[in-house]
Amino acid sequence: MRRGLFGTVAVLAALLPAAPSFAQTIKIGDIGSKTGVYEGYGRYQTWAVGMAVEEINAKGGVLGKKLEIVSEDDQTAPAPARLKTEKLILQDKVNLIVGAVGSGSTLAMMDVVKKYAQQYNVIHWNAISCAEFMRTKNFHPYYFNNQPDSRYQANGLAGYILKNMGQKVYIFYVDYAMGQSDARQFKVAMEKLGGEIVGVAGAPLDTKDFTPWFGQIEAAKPEVLFLAFAGNDSLRLMQQLHQFGMTKKYKLAGIDCFLLQQDLPQLAEPMEGFVQMNHFSPYNPDPGMQAFNKKFRAYTKKVTGKEIDGNISMGAYDGVYFWANAVNKVGTLEVDKVVKAMEGSCIENGKQGRACIRPEDHQVMYDIDIYKISKGRNEPIARLKATDIAGEPMVGKDPIPGFTWDLKKK
């Protein structure tokens, strides 16, 4: 018996795996710096969220429903972040919000989510901001974080700097929530280990000319210049330090979000030898990180037309999975049940190996690498245990009681 064309197509279609069909959607909010001094980080966060959502939808979604992303730009400022968070919750009815990039924006978002979390069943996930206040005195139970914050980084990096780079350190930071937090934590960590902080200075966010501070740095005679800046601030600062010969004169170290890997080739000479802790690099040979980066390059090729390496914003991908796994486990979006399911949950064999949410302060715990920049590539030189450097939970407390900027001269 002959089959007609349509009969043959129908038979073939019946043999193919059916794509998931969705009656409704669940919305995820993505708030990041699409413009402003940290705009690059926000783009990568959006791609990381998008890749996770695409994968989860292909597996059947969450509670049998398709995930849909609503993205917003906070312009790297707290006021827009607060307004966009309210819009995502009250108008778009999202159940997960990922963001932001700047710590000031993330703190503003936290207040809004805390207000509406139970009424609208919404969870807040931070993947990039690193001020320690979010998991200490400003913490609330609907906030989760897999970015190694200032305390996490300071505990890990201070010892390496003092052992391998020098004992006299000058701290130069952006005078903003993130930089203030980083400077405080690194000062305390280095002094605790016997290092000498010979000077501290802060420059406003989005400073164009850093040279007025260079005289102070030179006068302090440091061995190491520790830098707590990010984005366009870091680009300008490194260019100016290099022009004045200071990248050759001092050993340089800084925070994990100082520059994205994508920015390093254009600053290969100024950044040579720069040391930092980081939780993602396409040049890390770890099999989990390489497998993830391969997936990310394929995804960005599909959405942008070119393959792009991942960077520290990739924590947003894990955040979507932690939340989706918990919702599917409890079978509901009821926020308190989702929180309980997320606490203590783990992702096995991820891009940083095993990663688990600490129940007390919702910090994701994972081992992390110290990197040194060589020829524009962020290459790992040491791995540190999360349990050794994350610090104990300090919910509702000032993590550095009695802190002072006074220098302890030796």
Low-confidence stretches: 1-17
Principal-axes shape call: globular
CATH class of the largest domain: Alpha Beta
Structural Rg: 22 Å
Number of domains: 2
Please trace the helix and strand order, writing H or E for each element: HEHEHEHEEHEHEHEHHEHEHHHEEEEEH
- What structural class is derived from the secondary structure elements? alpha/beta
Major sheet characteristics: 7 strands, mixed
The CATH topology assignment of the largest domain is Rossmann fold
User: How many individual helices?
Assistant: 14
Mean pLDDT: 92
The strand count comes to 15
CATH superfamily of the largest domain: Response regulator
End-to-end gap: 97 Å
The helicity comes to 40-55%
Report the CATH architecture of the largest domain: 3-Layer(aba) Sandwich
Strand order of the largest sheet: 7-6-8-9-10-14-15
**Beta-sheet strand percentage?**
15-25%
